[in-house]
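Morning F.,

Quick status update on the modeling queue. The single chain you submitted on Monday has been processed. Sequence for confirmation:
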Amino acid sequence: MSVFEVLALIQGTLASQTSALTPWYIKGIKDLCFLMIVVYAVTPLLLGGKIFRQTAICAGFWLAGIIPSLLFSATVLPFPVLASGLRWALPMLLPALLFYKLDISYMVRITNALILLFLFHLLVQIYQLFFMGHWFGLNQWGFPSRLPGIFSIPNAAAFFNLSTLLFIDRFKSKKTFLFLAGLVSTFLTASGTGIITLLIFILFIIARRIDVVRKNMKLYMLLCVPFFMSLGLTYINFFLPSRGSGYVAISLGTRFSIFIDAFSSGIISTHMGLATNTGILFSNFLQLDSKTMIADNLYASILVNLGYWGLLFFGILIFIYFKPCFRKKTKKESNFYSFFLFLIAAFSFTTITFEVFPTNLLISIMIAFAHAPKHIHYQQGAS
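Structure tokens below.
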């Protein structure tokens, strides 16, 4: 919902990516959507409906992870920053609230809506190719080097693309055109993480079509993933000169440095909300005297916002969420969720994935669907 930021990018009038140009009541639409889904999931429980054991356990770990930091931070931080921290943490609770509420028909409808949004995103990228300002620099052909489409950050656009392709791969049968469109769109973002993850996705698609490879997918991926990652890094260094000759070293080095610095947060953090994009926008807009930081990756964000205590409980929660992904009875499902895990892990190192809308919602939905009963999971219905 960064409408005015995207318009400023196109017009060449953007001055900073840490200041909000879009009015709060427009940005709030995505939070309202998220809140409506939470209300939809919680209402049956409040009306005396059955509370699933797994939901209760996950909600308990979520609360245990955030409450200590929330209480300690409340004594030193202004309310808007604390609210940013709660907003940041909410996507970690949503999968548990959606357990056993999703079936294949829901997933197909979500995928159809995603396709429409993705095609609109691609059209915006094509427009940006010819008419956008030079905020991200120019490539060797004189075109804008990075095209974020309906997003203000190219990395977020690439994350959305790959998540959409994953839904298309799982829940649609006619997908060749959409795969090609996704490939073009991701390369237009010039996101290093996006391009490397896309190459791994292509590897995954090719591998499962070869019988001998499909039966030994884990070994094949173990051998080939490093090669494809090297191929992606080579492409970025040699064919995206606008990113700078030392782009890979600088980008990864900076994020790793931020992650190491985040360990100074202590056992229980008093900084909840400071390492969030929303907290930065609130502080700038309201001119708050808060020392916010650009965490630039999820792992550092968890450490700064919650400390070691929150990292422990969120780690347990993540294990519970992804445990079913390793217990799929078919090779197809097992391989699909293997790439799903790789996608999240890769982008979490370059993005605060909890705050990338609508991708944070898509991840929550996919995790919840992984917990669906087997007879729902394997129903025919994808079109």
